[in-house]
Prior knowledge:
Elements: E1 2-6, E2 8-9, E3 12-13, E4 26-29, H1 39-58, E5 64-68, H2 73-83, E6 89-96, H3 114-118, H4 127-130, E7 140-147, H5 150-158, E8 162-164, E9 179-184, H6 206-217, E10 222-228, H7 241-250
Amino acid sequence: xxxxxxxxxxxxxxxxxxxxxxxxxxxxxxxxxxxxxxxxxxxxxxxxxxxxxxxxxxxxxxxxxxxxxxxxxxxxxxxxxxxxxxxxxxxxxxxxxxxxxxxxxxxxxxxxxxxxxxxxxxxxxxxxxxxxxxxxxxxxxxxxxxxxxxxxxxxxxxxxxxxxxxxxxxxxxxxxxxxxxxxxxxxxxxxxxxxxxxxxxxxxxxxxxxxxxxxxxxxxxxxxxxxxxxxxxxxxxxxxxxxxxxxxxxxx
Length: 252
């Protein structure tokens, strides 16, 4: 199996290896010289490279595993799938909603807007340059999202996005058709996965998240799985939790 490896957090190139990839896989690294322009041009440059890496693999019909530094990479993955004729619904595992906007965010962190951008917010900035067609809200399942800001709560109150805890997700809850799964590893309780950039307490355990992810993959409908390793590079992994987690998720 070939893994697409995207060593970036937003437009920041991460040191290698920021994620302990298991042995025995072919690795196709996405690396691009980003333009000396604003952040939107740089992000579009990265996501275009991701889309180009995804498109030919999507035409084979096999699930594409991606290991990346954050959830926004899913935007490029979705564009690549669509170029290959795959119109995926979205299953988004995350401790956070990623549904902020530039008008509502208090931090300005663009990673907190990843799902909102995918859903078509400010399409002129990212979706339009990539030729991305946003999925309908009713084709999106947000899994966990235990740490929401008030604007995200307000959005979800009127949106058609389905939201479920990890433990309650079943195959019947999944949208029809091919699936694009974004698994932000900060969905896992930080007591079991230390070193996360944005830890949110009282989350599900490692085994629960792995079990739910496998259930989705076992439907046979997952076109691509983005494992977003949203942890601090260099945080000690003395007991090998990160390595074992990635190996478990990637070996099927």
